[in-house]
Amino acid sequence: MKKKQTSSPSISLDIISYQLKEIHSEVCKNSRDIESLKTQVAMGKGGIKAVFVIGTFIGIVIAVIKNMKF
Protein backbone atom coordinates (compact mmCIF):
# COMPACT_ATOMS: atom_id res chain seq x y z
CA MET A 1 0.00 0.00 0.00
CA LYS A 2 1.40 3.38 -1.04
CA LYS A 3 1.58 6.19 1.39
CA LYS A 4 -0.07 9.42 0.40
CA GLN A 5 2.32 12.31 -0.01
CA THR A 6 1.27 15.33 1.91
CA SER A 7 2.55 18.72 1.00
CA SER A 8 2.93 21.60 3.30
CA PRO A 9 -0.31 23.58 3.67
CA SER A 10 1.55 26.86 3.28
CA ILE A 11 3.03 25.78 -0.07
CA SER A 12 -0.41 24.74 -1.33
CA LEU A 13 -1.92 28.03 -0.19
CA ASP A 14 0.89 29.94 -1.89
CA ILE A 15 0.25 28.10 -5.15
CA ILE A 16 -3.49 28.73 -4.91
CA SER A 17 -2.89 32.38 -4.10
CA TYR A 18 -0.56 32.75 -7.10
CA GLN A 19 -3.09 31.10 -9.39
CA LEU A 20 -5.87 33.36 -8.12
CA LYS A 21 -3.71 36.43 -8.79
CA GLU A 22 -3.05 35.20 -12.33
CA ILE A 23 -6.75 34.59 -12.90
CA HIS A 24 -7.56 38.04 -11.54
CA SER A 25 -5.08 39.70 -13.90
CA GLU A 26 -6.52 37.77 -16.87
CA VAL A 27 -10.07 38.77 -15.92
CA CYS A 28 -9.03 42.43 -15.68
CA LYS A 29 -7.37 42.23 -19.11
CA ASN A 30 -10.47 40.61 -20.60
CA SER A 31 -12.66 43.32 -19.08
CA ARG A 32 -10.53 46.03 -20.72
CA ASP A 33 -10.69 44.19 -24.04
CA ILE A 34 -14.47 43.91 -23.80
CA GLU A 35 -14.80 47.65 -23.12
CA SER A 36 -12.58 48.36 -26.12
CA LEU A 37 -14.72 46.12 -28.33
CA LYS A 38 -17.90 47.81 -27.10
CA THR A 39 -16.44 51.18 -28.09
CA GLN A 40 -15.48 49.90 -31.54
CA VAL A 41 -18.93 48.42 -32.10
CA ALA A 42 -20.58 51.67 -31.04
CA MET A 43 -18.41 53.61 -33.51
CA GLY A 44 -19.33 51.13 -36.24
CA LYS A 45 -23.03 51.54 -35.54
CA GLY A 46 -22.61 55.32 -35.60
CA GLY A 47 -20.79 55.11 -38.93
CA ILE A 48 -23.56 53.01 -40.44
CA LYS A 49 -26.18 55.51 -39.26
CA ALA A 50 -24.16 58.39 -40.72
CA VAL A 51 -23.84 56.65 -44.09
CA PHE A 52 -27.57 55.92 -44.09
CA VAL A 53 -28.45 59.56 -43.30
CA ILE A 54 -26.07 60.93 -45.94
CA GLY A 55 -27.36 58.44 -48.53
CA THR A 56 -30.94 59.39 -47.75
CA PHE A 57 -30.12 63.07 -48.07
CA ILE A 58 -28.39 62.54 -51.43
CA GLY A 59 -31.35 60.46 -52.63
CA ILE A 60 -33.79 63.23 -51.66
CA VAL A 61 -31.69 65.85 -53.42
CA ILE A 62 -31.51 63.76 -56.61
CA ALA A 63 -35.28 63.10 -56.51
CA VAL A 64 -36.01 66.81 -56.08
CA ILE A 65 -33.68 67.74 -58.96
CA LYS A 66 -35.31 65.17 -61.27
CA ASN A 67 -38.82 66.35 -60.38
CA MET A 68 -37.99 70.03 -60.86
CA LYS A 69 -37.22 69.51 -64.55
CA PHE A 70 -40.32 70.41 -66.55
Unreliable segments (pLDDT under 50, ≥5 consecutive)? none
Mean pLDDT equals 88
Strand elements, count: 0
Secondary-structure element pattern, one letter each = H
Can you characterise this structure?
The termini are far apart. The protein has one helix spanning about 10-70. It has about 70 residues and is mainly alpha-helical. It has one domain (about 15-70). The model has no long low-confidence stretch (mean pLDDT about 90).
Task: Offer a concise description of the structure.
The protein is an all-alpha fold.
Helix-strand blueprint:
Blueprint: H1 9-68
Keywords:
70 residues, mainly alpha
